Amino acid sequence: MSLFEAVRLAWAQIRAQKLKSFFTLLGVTIGVTFLIAVVSIVGGMSRYMQEELVGKLIAVNAFELRSRPNINMGDVSEETWREYRRRPRIRTEDVGPVVAALPPGTRSVQVSSANVQVESRYAKPRQILASGVSDDYFNVKRMDVTSGRLIAPQEYALGAPVLVIGPDVAKHFFAGLDPVGRELRIAGIPYQVIGVAESQGSAFGLSFDRFVIAPHSAPIRRLLNPHGVVDAVIVQGESPIIMLEAQERVRQVMRTRHRLRPSDPDNFALQTSDSALEFWNKIKSYMVLAGIALPAIGLVVGAIVIMNIMLVAVAERTREIGVRKALGARRSDITRQFLAEAT
User: Fold this and answer.
1) Paired strand residues for 215
2) How many C-beta neighbours within 10 Å does residue 85 have?
3) Which residues 6+ apart lie within 8 Å of 66 measured at CB?
4) What is the CA radius of gyration of the chain?
């Protein structure tokens, strides 16, 4: 019996027993669909966490020097929080030695942030995330404006009262108006809006577009941190290798400045996207194992169902097999026929 003849006979038998064929196919389809669904969900959530959440908060090929991690996923014990509160803050006098130790091919930015009340003649006051940043911030974050312009180097140097605002801020305070050139007041001081930044999107219902950005030396600095304190120094390398080298140099500088002994743990944080996602990566590994094990069980069950159905089919068709053998069919012909049907 040729392979074509075996396949033709198998199709004829499948059409003859429609109900059996339907349930067999349904079992296999559910197992395979479950496998694809679980793998797709895990992969999609991983990309969402990396690109939409942490990727928006931490720049590419960058790390942040902070007194404590800015992104905490998972349960953080009370003892850990107490240790965080005891840590010294990052001070402006730390920035110079840190920047001096960086290897070629890196750039650094100072950032201080806090929620402040912003006022406008066109809308009600609202609490907005305000950031005071140094030069190169927009290059590090790969952020541009949709209207207006970015902060100029002279404005960074002079601490000019100018702002680049997020789309949500523009929509709330200047609905139906062009915000560029208009005024927002923070702590009674007028700031001129010079640009509206590109939308940064949202994650888990939290919008990343409710922000205002000013030069680090502008008057807003008094609202963000005590005198001489910065929240973070962002360091970005041209490549992951340069970033890792810069990270080790910064660690050595900060340990020296904090007078830590070799056995003492770091009392500061060097946070990268990988460290921020450490808790999520643990969860993902368990989800991947479950996503492989559970569909595998389903596929094994489906294979057992197929085996049992084929055993029943062979037992029910002993008369047909006998007739075929009487007409000259060989054992291999019978085997090929049932293997084709099972396949």
Assistant:
1) 133
2) 9
3) 90, 231, 232, 268, 269, 271
4) 32
Q: Which two tokens stand for residue 330?
A: 């060989």
For the segment 318-331, the average pLDDT, to the nearest whole number, is 82
Strands 189-197 vs 202-203: parallel, antiparallel or unpaired? unpaired
Residue 70 CB contacts under 8 Å (≥ 6 apart), including other chains? 57, 64, 232, 269, 271, 276
Which helix H or strand E contains 38, and what residues bound it?
helix 18-47
Contact (CB, 8 A) for 49 and 74: no
Model pLDDT, residue 223: 93
Which two structure tokens, joined as six digits, stand for 211?
């922000």
Helix (H, G, I), strand (E, B) or coil at 131: strand
Paired with 108 in beta bridges are 235
Q: How confident is the model at residue 46 (pLDDT cuts 50, 70, 90)?
A: low
pLDDT band of 13, cuts 50, 70, 90: confident
Q: What are all long-range contacts of 119-123, with beta carbons under 8 Å and residues at least 24 apart?
A: 119/184, 119/185, 119/186, 120/173, 120/174, 120/182, 120/183, 120/184, 120/185, 121/183, 122/173, 122/174, 122/175, 122/177, 122/182, 123/172, 123/173, 123/174, 123/175
pTM, two decimals, is: 0.68
Task: Give the H or E element holding residue 32.
Answer: helix 18-47
